[in-house]
Specification:
This protein is mostly helical. The protein is built from 20 helices and seven strands. It folds into three domains: 22-320, 3-Layer(aba) Sandwich (Rossmann fold); 330-483, no CATH class; 499-749, no CATH class.
């Protein structure tokens, strides 16, 4: 048996205000000192003793009783604690304020193992012998003990039992009063406590049962005599307390028996069950004392804050309102836990945020790999961690703080995820556009026909799938904001916009292909018509397949007809192709309008080429020679001096000369007017963007604001050119005539 050590004031006290080290807690911690100061290191103590992590799996016992009744001695024996005890020789009060120590016999072998994490509070003796008649501290410490403890041990000498006026009964009266006051405010939880009477120096002559009866009678008397607050007049003592009793032999007279009995008593500090046990006065002796209903439900990691709050209220004589204290505690602890959780969250999320921000800074938004997995894991881990720690606290506060925490986490994740999707959006649009362009290029290279619409459809599917995969990887079940449907829709809209742009480009490519085709067709057919001029026989040559014989007079009709027919064909090709890649009506309309304008330009240029000085002069000369040097049958003439060379010359010359005014103006034979080019081209479609059409050359009579009339547009040879052409042609004709004349004379001479 170990004798309790003697505590000295200059020894290793862990008093209020001391810096915490493990050694200093050898004797426990002074929770409240003689100046009623609360020890700020209580939580450190709970951590050092590994109690703080125990959640609800801890127990609190307080011991009450008169000064020097062997309380500390009892606790030291029961729990292996080292509370200071009074030396046998120096009868001085040793326990000041309230001390706490953790059960050191935990885990000790024995059939009946003690409960986990028992914290014992040794409350200063209550005789007030050294404090004077300081009822104030007694009341306050009783209140504090009741607010926190599951079990209150009342330590009492056997010979005090039945002394109704004794100090112990005064104390009990205080405890009951304080209890009523306390739970007036806390009707819902109404926690019970166990008053555990330990009768010391039990001689054995009076059986425990008798002592118990006496005590119960006294307690009932005290309760009846209490002036109860309004609303609680009818309350019974057993509404608040259960009672248990134990007796111990004299420690000094029967030391061995004392030890065995204390040993036995120790086994009762187990978790017990209500089953079969009545409320109140008549508790069985052998059950575990810690009934779950006694527990104050303050999580161990919040105990110090709670206890301090409670003490603060008590010491300042405020109404102690435990529900409010529990709510305040919950707020404080939930905030604290939330902060810790967010710190851990930050560690995993901040590097990702930084990476993303850097991408944006460099103008190259990055799609972070496995962001969804990392984000989800961090979120789940944080919320889970919060839940584990914080859900033990006041439910309403916990739920509110959880929502707050989720809000904070989600704000961070939201920004991160939106950044991610915006990067995925950008890169997706770019690769879509690139993929379509290169597929088109590949198609063009192969020379094979490629289906633009198919390419777009295929690549769009790929691009959408990619985005969807990313968006889905970010989704968190049950978290509505992680449904990124609107982002997906926006993305699809952008892809369609890009498709539209690419289609427009494809339309341009198609248009220029069709234009090239028109150019080549017109190049041949217009050339052919002009070449017919050279024959000079005005279509007297063999007409083909019942075609109307060509005459010089309807040159322009023929050109106009073949022109419009060619363009018609081109329009059909254009329309078919454009429809194949889903161009809409408006786009096609604009394309056709452009095609007609461009084609007209092509024709006009082709005509200009034909009437270029050298070309047209050559044609006129051929025309003239054909008429002059060949007879109606197409047989070359052999000039004889008798021939009317001059007459024939004049006739042929005049006939050819009529071509010049004909050629000078694009006029249809029937109406002797230019074709209705404005009508043929048509008005600019409403959807034409003038900015886009800057490459279109103005056309006289069509683009009226350009100040050029249709007449001017249709003027092929200017007046000056015409005159010049007449002069030049005449000279050429004259040359031919002279030659003919010479040959006629020469022929005679031969
Ligand atoms: P506390 O003030 O109630 O904490 O009492 P202590 O534990 O300091 O003990 C006060 C005195 O009572 C000491 O001198 C102890 O040796 C003595 N003491 C302790 N236990 C017993 C006991 O069971 N019977 C008697 N008669 N004296 C005891
Ligand atoms: Mg003591």
């Amino acid at each position: 048996p170990t004798a309790p050590s003697i505590m000295t004031m200059n020894g290793h006290f862990a008093g209020v205000g001391d810096a915490p080290t493990k050694e200093q807690y050898e004797h426990g911690i002074q929770v409240i000192d003689e100046d009623k100061e609360f020890n700020p290191n209580l939580n450190t103590y709970l951590q050092i003793t590994k109690t703080a992590q125990s959640g609800f799996n801890y127990h609190l016992i307080s011991v009450f009783g008169s000064q020097s009744t062997g309380k500390s001695t009892l606790l030291n024996h029961l729990f292996g604690t080292e509370f200071g005890v009074m030396s046998e020789t120096d009868r001085r009060q040793t326990t000041k304020g309230i001390w706490m120590s953790k059960n050191k016999r935990e885990g000790a072998d024995g059939a009946q193992k003690m409960a986990d994490n028992i914290l014992v509070m040794d409350v200063e003796g209550t005789d007030g012998r050294e404090r004077g008649e300081d009822q104030d501290f007694e009341r306050k410490s009783a209140l504090f003990a009741l607010a926190t403890s599951e079990v209150l041990i009342v330590n009492i000498w056997e010979h005090q039992v039945g002394l109704y006026q004794g100090a112990n009964m005064g104390l009990l009266k205080t405890v009951f009063e304080v209890n009523l006051q306390l739970f007036l405010k806390d009707k819902q939880s109404n926690p019970r406590s166990l008053l555990f009477f330990v009768i010391r120096d039990h001689l054995g002559t009076t059986p425990l049962a008798n002592l118990r009866n006496t005590l119960i009678a006294d307690l009932t008397n005290i309760w009846t005599g209490l002036s109860k607050p309004a609303g609680l007049e009818k309350s019974r003592i057993e509404d608040y307390f259960d009672f248990a009793f134990a007796a111990l032999p004299h420690k000094i007279l029967q030391p061995d028996k004392f030890i065995t009995e204390v040993e036995k008593l120790g086994t009762r500090f187990r978790v017990g069950h209500r089953a079969g046990r009545e409320h109140g006065l008549d508790q069985e002796l052998d059950g575990g004392v810690f009934l779950p209903e006694y527990h104050r439900r303050i999580p161990a990691d919040g105990f110090s804050v709670y206890a301090e709050g409670v003490w603060d209220q008590i010491v300042n004589n405020k109404d102690l309102d435990l529900p409010t204290q529990q709510e305040l505690l919950a707020q404080f602890r939930c905030d604290e836990i939330s902060r810790e959780v967010l710190e851990a969250f930050d560690v995993s999320i901040a590097p990702l945020e930084e990476k993303q921000a850097e991408g944006v800074r460099l103008g190259k938004p990055a799609v972070l790999k496995d962001l969804g997995t990392a984000g989800k894991a961090a979120r789940v881990k944080s919320i889970k961690a919060f839940e584990v720690e914080a859900s033990r606290y006041h439910k309403g506060v916990y739920s509110r703080k959880r929502v707050e925490l989720e809000g904070k986490i989600d704000t961070r994740l939201k920004a991160l995820y939106h950044g991610q999707l915006s990067a995925a959006h950008k890169s997706g649009v770019t690769s879509f556009s690139d993929a379509v362009s290169s597929a088109v290029k590949a198609g063009q290279k192969k020379g094979a026909s490629y289906e633009f619409a198919e390419i777009v459809e295929r690549e769009k599917k790929v691009a959408l799938k990619q985005f969807e995969t990313e968006a889905r990887s970010l989704a968190i079940e049950g978290v509505p904001w992680t449904n990124f449907k609107s982002q997906y829709n926006l993305y699809e809209k952008d892809l369609d916009e890009v498709s539209g742009r690419l289609r427009k480009e494809e339309m341009r490519r198609l248009a220029s292909r069709v234009e090239r085709w028109v150019r080549s067709r017109l190049g041949d057919s217009v050339g052919l018509e002009f070449n017919k001029l050279g024959s000079g026989r005005g279509g007297s040559g063999a007409p083909e397949d019942g075609e109307k014989p060509a005459t010089e007079k309807d040159l322009w009709d023929r050109i106009w007809n073949l022109f419009t027919a060619t363009v018609k064909e081109a329009e059909i090709r254009f329309t078919e192709r454009a429809k194949s890649f889903d161009a809409d009506e408006d786009e096609i309309e604009v394309g056709l309008w452009r095609l007609r304008r461009k084609s007209w330009g092509v024709l006009r240029a082709r005509i200009d080429e034909e009437v270029m000085e050298g070309n047209i002069l050559l044609k006129l000369r051929e025309n003239f020679e054909d008429k002059f040097r060949y007879d109606e049958g197409g047989v070359p003439r052999i000039w004889r001096p008798t021939d009317d060379i001059e007459g024939m010359y004049t006739k042929a010359k005049d006939s050819t000369l009529t071509l010049i005014p004909l050629l000078a103006r694009f006029r249809l034979a029937e109406t002797y007017a230019p074709p209705d080019l404005p009508d043929w081209i048509g008005n600019a479609p409403a959807s034409v963007d003038p900015q886009d059409e800057e490459d279109l050359a103005p056309i006289g009579g069509v683009d009226e604001e350009e100040g050029k009339s249709l007449e001017e547009e249709m003027t092929i040879l200017s007046e000056a050119k015409r005159q010049d052409l007449v002069v030049r042609f005449k000279k050429t004709a004259d040359g031919v005539y002279v030659e003919a004349k010479r040959s006629a004379i020469g022929g005679v001479a031969q």
